[in-house]
Amino acid sequence: MAGYEEISDQEKVRIAKDFIVHAPPGEFNEVFNDVRILVNDDKLLKEGAAPAFIQYNKDQFTTVKVGEQQTLVTEFGDLGNNRFLDPSSKQSFKFDHLRKEASEFSEVDSDSRAEPWRLALDEALAKYRDDYYKNGVTAVYGKSSGDSITLVACIEDHKFEPNNYWNGRWRSQWSITFQPSGGNTEARGNFKVQVHYYEDGNVQLVSHKDVKEQINVSNEEDTANALVKVIGEQEGSYQTSLTEDYGTMSETTFKALRRQLPLTRTKIDWNKIASYKVGQELKGD
Predict the structure, then answer these.
(1) Of 221, 171, 210, which is closest to residue 63 (Cα–Cα)?
(2) pLDDT at 227
């Protein structure tokens, strides 16, 4: 087309990958289909953008069914060659990053030193999940190295409402490294919230927070309960602050984004906004 410079296949792939890794939760297929039209070369897209599919699913804690339960696709369970670990069922599986399906299941050996600690945390976290995350899925990973054990707990919950033009996802991960002999250790947590609202517009809420907290390591059960207590307190505090911040934004930030004077050259009384006849009051001459 006159006036436009043809971009290279390499640049097409770069742009496609950027779109894909930033796809809002629950909208991967829509973004992929749009990118597919733009690239107009299925072979190029699938071969060039394959790493982006993998990154997206791991970053989003994509859920997948393994047997009668669900687990998460995460970097902590990545075994290479598109195979992932379900630590709860002690199975590995091949994951199709486009279809979001698991296949080719195989039993795996667990880390014998870490497994009792992992199992205790898995059970305690499942109770917490059932109490606070209606559709939540959890995965707890454990491994030993030398005298230390590392546990990583992941939580995902989402609600997709495309008919109402919004989708949202919660992700959090917690990790501790400790010696089974006991003592204090640092628990590190990370929370991520992403919500996309797109009715007559395009608005996203993206928020994240890192936290650290000391916990006491004793036996498996008490350590698991101590960590889950910290998880509940920190996540509850974060979610409360998000609600409060959103209320403040509704009263301040969103108003500031609007022009000071509408086309009528008269300031809007925001306390009476519900009573305005928008079509008439804001109509220009």
Answers:
(1) 171
(2) 98
Three-state SS for the chain is: CCCCCCCCHHHHHHHHHHHHHCCCCCCHHHHHHHHHHHHCCHHHHHHHHHHHHHHHHHHCCEEEEECCEEEEECHHHEEECCEEEECCCCEEEEEECCCCEEEEEEECCCCCCCHHHHHHHHHHHHHHHHHHCCCCEEEEEEEEECCEEEEEEEEEEEEEEHHHCEEEEEEEEEEEEECCCCEEEEEEEEEEEEEEECCCCCEEEEEEEEEEEEEEECCHHHHHHHHHHHHHHHHHHHHHHHHHHHHHHHHCHHHHHCCCCCCCCCCCCHHHHHHCCHHHHCCCC
Q: How confident is the model at residue 208 (pLDDT cuts 50, 70, 90)?
A: very high
